[in-house]
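Hello,

Our lab assistant flagged a job as stuck in the queue for most of the afternoon. It eventually completed. Since we weren't sure the result was trustworthy after the delay, we are filing this so someone can double-check. Below is the sequence as submitted and the structure that was eventually returned. Let us know if re-running is recommended.
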Amino acid sequence: MTDSAAVSAVDRAITSRMSARAFTQQVVSRELITDILQVASRAPSGTNTQPWKVYVLQGATRDSLVEKVCAAHEAIRANPEVAKQYQEQYDYYPEQWVSPYIDRRRENGWSLYGLLGIGKADRDLMHVQQQRNFKFFDAPVGLMFTIDTILGRGSMLDYGMFMQNIMVAARARGLHTCPQAAWNAFHSIIVPHIGAAENERLVCGMALGFADSDDKVNTLLTPRVPVNEFTHWVA
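-- returned structure --
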């Protein structure tokens, strides 16, 4: 028999999840973070390999990483050639964008910038907003995820399910998150900072904390394609 209250709670946690881009300084306890990660670890993985490894950054370790990566980001702006030093280890995005994906990407970007009053010619403001990524959007907790380089592509699918569990479990406890691929290019800074081994590849980062409900950036609601557009009923 269906437990309607449980269904509603799960649905609410999933549908209220968003990529928060402004957080308060309210402390997130180690116990709460541990609880979220414990629940998330029930994610499925091929032959139960459990390919995830999580590094939690708070306080001084978080702040010093922010300082390092923001400095690198500024160096790239001053001299674009510096970007060659910071290349992603795997192709999160396609080399060539095509419709409908490029259309959704553009809609997302310009919806965010439009909300913040950033025009297409406002390069300085775009740079500042982009750098908000490397400050975890002021969230007090930063998470870095790594995976053993020996593992195959299927483990990345497993990893996605684990991360979704983190985000949903966080919402059920009143917190918000923002998964961030923006960090990936700076793995050469991040991996030694967090003490990861040479055989670990950075998957992405994530901001975790309590969303700032007074910041208009958190009013952005990204659209979703209707079910009948992505679903094919096979007779």
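-- support follow-up --
The delay was a queue issue, not a problem with the job. The result is valid. The mean pLDDT is 97. Strands lie at 53-57, 141-148, 176-180, 200-209.
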